[in-house]
Amino acid sequence: MSDYSDYDDDDDFVIDSPPPKSKKKTPTKATKTAKTPKATTKAPKKKQPLANTTNTSATMASSPKSKKKKSTASDQYQKLSQLEHILKRPDTYIGSIEKYESEQWVINEETQCMEKRKINIVPGLFKIFDEILVNAADNKIRDPSMKKIDVKIDVENNAISVKNDGKGIPIEIHTKENMYIPEMIFGNLLTSSNYDDDEKKVTGGRNGYGAKLSKDH
């Protein structure tokens, strides 16, 4: 028997193989995900009460206030011409020039009869119209043949005409004033045919204003 009979071949010739190398794991980079910023809502600011502000541009542009000039005694006391006084103080001659409601006789266009009712009138306008009517009525004393007075009111043209069928005004030059008589008595203050106190009149004026007031106003 051989000396090698007890030799175990399998045990002696087995070569241990090295253990397999473990693959190194490459560390994966963590991808950062961008965070969406959260919308922050701020509480609305409390409204402040309106403050008084000065407009500087307007202040700078405005011219400095001029000092009031002291009025002299001559400025305080004035003298007006007759025409200036009539225009400045019409109530002295014709009454108020303000409109107001008054009860008056008017003609009813449907019945063609006079009736009394409230209307708006201007006393000053009423007065100067009356002055012309008085002139027309006074002519009846100078000319007894006069029979009628014709009054026309043109609303569209704001005109009133008054005429009578008596003797007219002489169309001739006044020897003293060197102007036509109609121009003198209708265009100049304090001219009248009624200064003769012995002459009979119906209701006519005698102060030399009358019809001239209708021209001035």
Automatic annotation (TrEMBL):
Pull one GO CC term from this UniProt entry: nucleus
The alphabetized list of GO BP terms reads: resolution of meiotic recombination intermediates; sister chromatid segregation
From the UniProt record, which GO molecular function terms apply? DNA binding; DNA topoisomerase type II (double strand cut, ATP-hydrolyzing) activity
Keyword list, A-Z: DNA-binding, Isomerase, Topoisomerase
Q: Which InterPro entries match?
A: DNA_Topoisomerase_II, HATPase_C_sf, HATPase_dom
Superkingdom field: Eukaryota
Biased composition range(s): Acidic residues: 1-14
What cofactor does this chain's UniProt record say it requires?
Mg(2+)
Kindly give the Pfam families that the UniProt entry links to this protein. Answer: HATPase_c
Its name, as the record gives it, is: DNA topoisomerase (ATP-hydrolyzing)
